[in-house]
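Repro:
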Amino acid sequence: MFVTINTVLEQGNEMRKLFFIAGFPVVVGLVLICVGFSALAFGGVDEHYWPQWRGPNFDGVAPSGDPPIEWSETKNIAWKVEIPGSGFATPVIWEDSIFILSAVPVTNGGPPEAFSSVAVNNHALESTTGSAKHPNTAIASATLMPPTKQRGQRQRRGRRQAEPLQAMDFTVMAISRTDGSLIWSDVARHETPHEGKQVNNSWASSSAITDGEHVFAFFGSRGLYAYDMEGNPQWNVDFGDMRIRNGFGEGTSPALHEDTLVIVWDHQGDSFIVALDKN
């Protein structure tokens, strides 16, 4: 497993790219995470995939992983796609689906552009227009941005809050592991955040989790959302608003054990742990 942090900014816009490196998924944006693994037979079916934050065994390790040791914009890249918005959520993978959470700024004027994929390394992938599962939730376009501060460069007042300036589409996406095309997308919630975030955090930092039957997307103060694998909403829960004015922001990821889904609600108000029936 490789983890690299990369900050990208240009004219206030934010974007990410999802690369597939010789069979391994990578998300590039405010955080770039490369998780490499092979789809060989393991003792447990979950070990074929990357179903949650820190992987199948909760340790950040991909069993029998064998990623390439070199890559670039073209070398060892099977395909790449632009991911609108920003988010630190780990991509989660089940069978052919890669699930991404993103907070997409809502722009003024005109409909958002559709999801697109790009051919790389002689793979015959034409630019495609993804058809959203729910037509009224097409995801916005994104613009590539140059890097700014290097990783590890110290910033003053690291907990400084960035005030919310615009509404966000808190979006769940399923992307094909085979060719990078959009399988489905849904805007779980459209909302202007109630308070700012830490400058190095994102509005979508909680990772999704899947059991192969459901996908659970947690957006903190924007709620918890359950989908089936085809993108159909099943249920949702709103826990209220967190208060993290002096912290590093929201970012707790759900945990799943059998039929029990666990959420930690830790903030500057009354904190709690809640266990929910996943069904």
